[in-house]
Amino acid sequence: MRRSPVEEARRQFRQDLLHSAAGVIVGVWLPLVIGGAALAHHRWLALGADLVLFCLGSASVMMVWNERRGWRRWQQVIRDVAIALPLWSLLNTNHEPNMWLWALKLPALLHLVKLSMLSTRSDALPPAAGRLLALIIILPLIAWWAATGWIALGGDAETTDAELRLVRAVYWAITTMASVGYGDIVPKTIPQMYYACAIMVTGVATFGYILSNIATLMLRIDAARQHQEEVRDRVEFFMQYHEVPAELRQRVRGYFQYLWASKRGYNDAEVFQSLPRPLRADLSMYLHRDLLSKVPLLAGASQDVLRDLVVTLRPVVYLPGNIICRKGAPGDEMYFVVSGEIEVLDEPEHVLARLHAGDFFGELALLTNQGRTATARAVSFCDLYVLDRESFARVTSSHPEFRDSLHQKVRSRHPFPGGVLEGRPPATGPTPET
Fold first, then answer.
1. Integer Cα distance of 236 and 95 in angstroms
2. Left (φ > 0), alpha (ψ -120 to 50) or beta: where does 336 sit?
3. Strand, coil or helix: 70
4. 245 contacts: CB under 8 Å, gap ≥ 6
5. pLDDT tens-digit profile of 298-307?
6. SS3 86
7. I need a surface site. Which of 49, 100, 373, 376 has the fewest CB within 10 A?
8. Count of CB atoms situated within 10 Å of the CB of 340
9. pTM for the full model?
């Protein structure tokens, strides 16, 4: 059966992870063998490297054998078998490092390029973090190869302690790649001088590439702030060009500061619009199901009804002092409070109720043409979701059984004196119908 693109990407991610791990093992051990470093003579380390490669290669062979067909499967199997076979343990009877046996595993190094692909094939790893991880792994490997190459050319031969010589070689490689060295370990032969020049050029190119990538990654990680600053710069230029009064400028700036503090500058509507409708409905249900479940008019509504309603919710933000709706004005929208505080006022300035996160008001505007019975004013910055009458009517027309149930509930409801209706949980008191 043909896999979906997502399943294929996950399968490829698992295989790339195995190949990349094998490439790192070979990239660490093979330079020791070629360079003749002391650790390469350690029998148990060689056996351990053989065992790890055997496990990684065998797992990859089984994965390819079960999931691929044709000549491509045999190509991959042959490469993985060459990596997996513990040739050093089976054929090297004198337990000495044999460059030719390990050279058969050189193809594993080609898998190191897959490190940069892991982030694009994983839905759990952020792309920026994946690319940064690849750079963190590749840079030490380059320094390691440079150090073992220095030993192979006889660098620092006067150091008799083999392990100390290896450590000094790594030190030389890093200082030479990062700059031009400190002069405490210097090349003495012509091949060593050529090699040192090549390492310095490689170091300049490598660090330049890495630093540019890190700078790009940092910009992408903080892309939201950069986007917000660009928007604010345009708004500031706009207000300056049109000579907007200082008090109004402060309110505009306060709005953008609130957007950054509460949502990091992202617009919920833009995120939802970028998703297909079924996925948008699932995400909306997860985020807003509790809001709808508190509305008495929607009690007992089916999941299909709630899914159709929740995708029509529209996010809005009100600043302190903004009038959300005014008494006597015609209403065609219902409001859900996500955050902030709203006061419901009668004329004159008499507070009937205060609404907070989880409350709602204006539900009868979805069903009747009567004017608002009170004024709603934002006390603080408020995030609301709006359900308009047209969207509500479209949903109810698609679900006749819900529409009939809704009409019965409306006929059975009785307003309190003064226009106050039961519109929120009893624990917090009645909500004015505005």
1. 73
2. beta
3. coil
4. none
5. 777 888 888 8
6. coil
7. 100
8. 21
9. 0.53
- CA 251/CA 270 separation, integer angstroms: 23
Q: Write out the two tokens for 223.
A: 């892309």
Residues 6+ apart with CB under 8 A from 104: 82, 85, 87
Q: Among candidates 324, 344, 319, which has minimal Cα distance to 429? A: 344
The β-bridge relationship of strands 382-388 and 333-339 is antiparallel
Residues 226 and 219: beta-carbon distance below 8 Å:
yes
Distances (CA, A) of 296 to 128, 241, 255, 292: 46, 49, 33, 9
Contact 386, 316 (CB under 8 A): yes
Task: Say if CB 105 and CB 82 are below 8 A apart.
Answer: yes
* Residue 343: DSSP 8-state: E
125-171: pLDDT as tens digits = 555 566 667 777 888 888 888 888 888 888 888 888 877 888 888 89
SS3 23: helix
- Backbone φ and ψ for 103, nearest 5 degrees, come out as -65, -25
Going along the chain from its start, the domains and CATH numbers come out as 5-122+133-195 (no CATH), 224-266 (1.10.287.630), 296-432 (2.60.120.10)
Contact between residue 398 and residue 340 where contact means Cβ atoms under 8 Å apart: no
CA-to-CA separations, 172 to 149, 164, 255, in angstroms, rounded: 11, 12, 55
Instruction: Give tens-digit pLDDT for 52-109.
Output: 777 777 777 777 666 655 566 666 677 777 777 766 555 555 555 555 666 677 777 7
The encoded tokens of residue 83 equal 């990596």
Query: How many residues would you count in the chain?
Result: 434
The 10 Å CB-count burial string (b at 16+, else e) for 192-213 is beebbeebbebbeebeeebeeb
Q: Decide if 373 contacts 433 (C-beta within 8 A).
A: yes
Query: Is-cis flag, bond preceding 348, omega within 30?
Result: yes
